[in-house]
Amino acid sequence: MAPALGDELLIELEGIEKTFRVGDTEIRALDGVDLDVSSGDYLAISGASGSGKSTLMNVLGCLDTPTRGSYRLRGVPVHVLDDDTLAMIRNKEIGFVFQSFNLLPRLDALRNVEVPLLYGPLLPAPRLERAAAALERVGLADRMSHLPNELSGGQRQRVAIARALVNQPALLLADEPTGNLDSRTSEEIMGLFDDLAAAGTTIMVVTHDREVAAHARREIRMRDGKIV
Ligand code: ADP
Ligand code: MG
After folding, report:
1. CB 44 within 8 A of CB 212
2. Which of 61, 68, 155, 171 has the most Cβ atoms closer than 10 angstroms to its Cβ?
3. Cα–Cα dist 158/149, whole Å
4. Where are the beta strands (DSSP E) in the chain?
5. How far apart are CA 159 and CA 187, in angstroms?
6. How many A from CA of 11 to the centre of ligand 1?
7. What is the pLDDT of residue 2?
8. How far apart are alpha carbons 26 and 77 in whole angstroms?
9. What residues does 25 pair with on adjacent strands?
10. What's the pTM?
């Protein structure tokens, strides 16, 4: 049967291993991960601390390379690419959201969101237009010239989400995005993720919060570097 439109395989992981060497010991953070993610999927990843969730996100986001195994992103075998090509793919295809927001403290919201566009072909005026449109999308049209420390936690995370989306990435990766937020603000942020998923963004979110995981369409659980 032909795959339905929008069911394109975005991510194919096969036998992914990641080993860290610390002194004399080897830590196998990922121990044979196989995973397919279709375009438009909305996935939660849960599991105990140390089970390999962040390592998996880093590999998915091309921030780190696997020790063994293959990773295809839109059919492209990214596990064999050099660092420069990987960085290019990362900037174009992947948006990241972290627990600690990771905004630049001296730049206002608009300039923070502009950052990923600085590596692209756009001139300053269209860059700022795009950044403004991304901030509007996350409901921050009236906070564009605020510095991060002039924003609430939830607003900071919205800025981070706008920054992650500004290049229209194929994949949004979020590692504990609500970990520093109270439960009401968490719900707001997850509502935003739901809207993005409904609009077709592929989302993978690491969380140990049951209520956050419940927003996703499917959930995978990790234990000792494996999907269980
Ligand atoms: P989680 O996000 O599920 O808490 P991680 O992916 O951060 O788990 O870590 C998985 C395992 O790999 C842990 O045992 C952790 O200590 C180890 N680990 C992660 N990153 C590194 C690193 N850069 N160097 C050495 N060990 C690491
Ligand atoms: Mg982690």
Report:
1. yes
2. 171
3. 14
4. 9-22, 25-38, 42-47, 68-73, 76-77, 94-98, 171-175, 202-206, 218-223, 226-227
5. 16
6. 22
7. 43
8. 26
9. 22
10. 0.92
